[in-house]
Amino acid sequence: MEQEIQQVQAIYQLITEFFINYSFQIFGAIIILILGILVARKVSTLVFNLCERKNLDITLSRFIASATKITIIVMVAIIALGKVGISVTPFVAAIGALSLGAGLAVQGLLSNYGAGLNIIVARPFVVGDTIHVKGVTGLVKEVHLAYTLLTDEDNVEINIPNKHIVGEILHNSHADTLAEETVGISYDSDPDVAISAIKQALEKMDDISKARTPLVGIEDFTDSGIRIGVRFWSPTSHYFEARYRANANIYAALQAADIAIPIPHKEIQVIERKDQQLKPGHINHTE
Q1: What is the pTM (predicted TM-score) of this model?
Q2: pLDDT at site 30
Q3: Distance of CA 210 to CAs 25, 203, 205, Å?
């Protein structure tokens, strides 16, 4: 029992001596740490406002401000620890070892952050652009350091890690998406009349891009008729709605212009074998 009491007294005496000897240093370290945090917040706000005045991307501005704040706090913490006589060299070595292990553990996450920083700086696309990458197409809604958020006409959100964007073949059609259609007309119809009717039908539509003129022309010649190609741009936010309406308007315009849409025909020849004689016959088959 006496031995335990002596141990408690020794610990109490050690703590008392520590606070007596280092009370001013501890108080000074706390003051330095508090002031450092306040200064870090102030400097971070100033850096963020400066980035906004320079019209930098909002994500990059926040990243720079946060990095500045963390850097100042770490420097102040090192100064505060030195104030109470604690050597920071072992901590630096330990932090280095932990950083190496953490870097290997979160390699994928770090690659996403690196790719996100590259996207923010290089700006291959911005919010509001339509991109196609890795078989996915959507309207850019948000750009983060770790991922890019896309959305489509059905309000489905598509989350793409940034490492799958950087280094890949990227298609950026800005705010619009290309619609490609084909219309068949018979050889008895005048293709110039059909092309003119289709152009007029598209010009009356308000939900297709006016910045890019629709292209309408003869695309191919088939066995059953002439194939007219139609290409126009529509805002990605209502791409399918505009495409379906354009098809309806084109059909109505061709009907009004008395343009015939051909029906494919196939001719099948049947050869009958009877008494060693071949009797050819013809059957017309319509699809």
Answers
A1: 0.61
A2: 84
A3: 71, 9, 10
